[in-house]
Design a protein that fits this description.
With about 190 residues, the chain is an all-alpha fold. It has 2 domains: about 90 residues, Cytochrome Bc1 Complex, Chain D, domain 2 (Orthogonal Bundle), CATH 1.10.760; about 100 residues, no CATH class. Helices cover about 60% and strands about 0% of the residues. It is built from 12 helices and no strands. Helix 4 crosses helix 5 and helix 6 crosses helix 12.
């Protein structure tokens, strides 16, 4: 990731968008960008970097980076996603979430999470209090622990896909999503207790 960050800085992205994605001047706030939020493998960001953005009445132009290699462009995209995830994580951990809506949490869970977590994360609320449950939701320990160097794990596509999916969700969570999910998971477990 350090190399990706250096690529982002060296080619001037940080000058307008900031190293931590805090923009200066008229640059787009990449932490709130719908285009970045919908990008899952760098292709949308890379296409935009290649083409650039012409000047408009409200926006300064963004130069095109068509002379950079695919790897350099994807490194920039990787760093943008990483910085966005870190920013969103901090925002959500610092937020006072209050009580969410369990029904809305269930609907979100069914739409975004149930395809991998068919058991509904049964029993998770018995293990964790609400702040820890929120932290596990944002950064599941199985996906954020130090990566294994075992060949079997390195080539495990299921783990890689899960990490990518969770990181994509993290980038796009709102405080309301998280409050609703935590409330749903906690309420669902209370209803299952004898």
């Amino acid at each position: 990731m350090q190399h990706a960050k250096e690529t982002y800085v060296v080619f001037g992205c940080a000058y307008c968008h900031g190293v931590t994605l805090t923009p200066r001047g008229e640059a787009t706030d990449l932490t709130r960008s719908a285009l970045v939020g919908s990008d899952t493998n760098g292709d949308r960001i890379v296409a935009l970097l290649r083409a650039g953005i012409p000047q408009t009445a409200k926006l300064s132009p963004m130069p095109q980076f068509s002379d950079l290699s695919d790897r350099q462009l994807h490194d920039i995209a990787r760093y943008i996603h990483y910085a966005r995830q870190e920013s969103r994580y901090k925002q959500l951990v610092d937020a006072n979430l209050g009580t969410g809506d369990a029904a809305a949490g269930k609907a979100y869970f069914d739409q975004q999470c149930a395809s991998c977590h068919a058991d509904g994360l049964s029993g998770i609320a018995r293990k964790y209090d609400a702040p820890t449950l929120r932290d596990r939701l944002l950064k599941p320990r199985a996906l954020s622990d130090v990566p294994s160097f075992a060949i079997v794990v390195i080539h495990d596509e299921k783990i890689a896909a899960a990490r990518e999916r969770h990181n994509h969700l993290l980038e796009n969570y709102t405080p309301t999503h998280v409050a609703n999910l935590v409330t749903y998971l906690a309420a669902g477990q209370m209803n299952r207790r004898p």
